Amino acid sequence: MDQMAEMVSSLSTRLQVSDNDLVTDLIKEAIAQVLDYTSQKKLVGNMDIYVKKLAVINYNRLGIEGETQRTEGGVTNYIETGIPKDIRLGLNHYRIAKVTRL
């Protein structure tokens, strides 16, 4: 079983979702976000763990895209945008620094 199929299976089980197209799309989005953040060309090490975590967060954000806060019944919830701090901290180990000449 290849890495993508394993992630789709794992995430489908975790989210209890039977729509493999949705799960595949969420994983592809999360892979793009992780690779953009780290400047890597492909997933290395344990980056697939962070891809799955980010895919779950993206799934939970469906329907509230663009919102930064939501108030319901007098309770205000603030929504973190972008990659959450705990995932960024884990991905920092895989970041490639870019050096430019002055």
In words, what does this structure look like?
The protein is mainly alpha-helical. Helices cover 52% and strands 8% of the residues. It is built from 4 helices and 2 strands. It has a two-stranded antiparallel sheet. A hairpin with a 2-residue loop joins strand 1 and strand 2. The longest helix has 19 residues. It is flat and about 50 Å long. The relative contact order is 0.14.
Question: Which characteristics define this entry?
Answer:
two-stranded antiparallel sheet
Give the structure's gist in a few sentences.
Helix content is 52%, strand content 8%. The chain has 4 helices and 2 strands; from the N terminus they run αααββα. Helix 1 packs across helix 3.
Question: What layout of secondary structure does this protein have?
Answer:
Layout: H1 3-15, H2 20-38, H3 47-60, E1 69-72, E2 75-78, H4 85-91
Antiparallel strand pairs: 1-2
Helix pairs in contact: 1-2, 1-3, 2-3
Strand % is 5-15%
User: What structural category characterises the helix and strand content?
Assistant: mainly alpha
Distance between the termini: 47 Å
> Which ranges are low-confidence, i.e. pLDDT below 50, for 5 or more consecutive residues?
none
How are the strands ordered across the major sheet?
A: 1-2
Oligomer: single chain
Overall strand count = 2
Using only C-alpha atoms, the radius of gyration works out to 16 Å
- Number of helices in the DSSP assignment: 4
In helices, the fraction of residues equals 40-55%
Q: Mean of the pLDDT scores?
A: 90
The topology string of helices and strands comes to: HHHEEH
Dominant shape: flat
How many strands, which pairing sense, and closed or not: the largest β-sheet? 2 strands, antiparallel
